[in-house]
Amino acid sequence: MEGSSHCRVGVMVKIHAAVCILCLLAAAMSAGCTNSPIHPAHTEPPPAVIVDYHRSGGLAGLDDRLVIFDNGAAIVSSRMSSREINLTQTDLDHLSSVFSDAQFTMLENNYTARLGTDLVHYSISYRGKTVNTEDSATPPQLQQVIDELNRVLRTGSFNQQANPLVSLPMSMP
Fold it and tell me: How many other C-beta atoms are found inside a 10 Å radius of the C-beta of residue 143?
């Protein structure tokens, strides 16, 4: 008799374990079955690139790049380093006026020098339009854009005061 009660306890434990496993399986299977819709977390769209500037070549073997996003974040990179900078809304407004003053959208897509070795090559993309040029073939209005973008490469800002060498006149002995 003692053996049969021991057997019944073993059977009861097995039944209890099976019921628990079935309950867990049912809960796991129905976890995704709710009537309320699942709303994805609100995500901001990624910032858009407004300027992609690349200068390369020349005697110094330049390979510099400046990428400016519409939220003011910018990446400055060269052969040796890369850094992130943040431009102000004033900087972004100045950038817009520089491109507008140059009538960038009206420029040709390519300005190629006929002669020259070790020329610096420039590729400037602004809001979807790309212009490529080289030293000695750059129209004056595009040169103003290049000068401003080079300032950001050097100083991290459009502010002329950010680099005193830019704003000080050179004195002659």
Answer: 14
CA pair distance 6, 3, nearest whole angstrom: 5
Domain assignment present for 135:
yes
H-state helical runs in the chain: 2-30, 89-101, 140-155, 164-167
Give the residue from 124, 56, 50 showing the smallest Cα distance to 87.
50
Which residue range(s) make up the domain with 121? 49-162
41 belongs to a structural domain: no
Compute the distance between CA of residue 120 and CA of residue 63 in angstroms, rounded to an integer.
10
Q: How many CA atoms lie within 13 A of 120 on its CB side?
A: 16
Can you give the CATH number for the domain in which 67 is found?
Answer: 3.30.1560.10
> Could you tell me the CA-to-CA distances from 54 to 12, 65, 106, 168 in Å, in that order?
77, 4, 20, 27
Predicted confidence (pLDDT) per residue in 22-73, tens digit: 555 555 555 555 555 666 677 888 999 999 999 999 888 899 999 999 999 9
Task: Decide: pTM greater than 0.85.
Answer: no
